[in-house]
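Hello,

Our lab assistant flagged a job as stuck in the queue for most of the afternoon. It eventually completed. Since we weren't sure the result was trustworthy after the delay, we are filing this so someone can double-check. Below is the sequence as submitted and the structure that was eventually returned. Let us know if re-running is recommended.
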Amino acid sequence: MRRPRIAPLEVERHVAAPPERVWSLLIQQDRLREWSRETAWQWFLPRRVRRGTWSLNLNRSGWFVWPTLSRYARVAPCRRLCFYVFGPAAWWTYDLAPAGDGTAVRLRRDLSGERSSWLSIVVAAIGLGGAPAHDRRLKADMAATLDALATAAETPQT
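-- returned structure --
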């Protein structure tokens, strides 16, 4: 059976805050569980996110929970945060760019080789209603994640 090609998932959001403010929140990746419906728990080694940091994660969708292991590959302050998730063979990238009075934030998921890994296909079939259904929910969650990040960045600091 040939694995079908999967287009990248991508969402973008304008945040009414400077890139430095958005970055200061984004680099706190342990806060992702506050912003993403699919992220349940994360543990980082070392604790500070930088190139080479490992992350052990628990993800959830409805009743289904599964672990992933990630490694941060690109950390360019105020510009890019990129990590690779083993298992699904997925690259997750946050790109930040100054945009008028704020920041354009793009979140993108690319699959290695533009195909789901066999592990992802099996996991999605068992607990996520299949890969296409999960990708639709995932794209909606990506948009909600950027909305939550924007809310945090746009909230005045106390």
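-- support follow-up --
The delay was a queue issue, not a problem with the job. The result is valid. The first strand starts at residue 9 and ends at 15. Helices lie at 19-26, 32-35, 118-127, 131-154.
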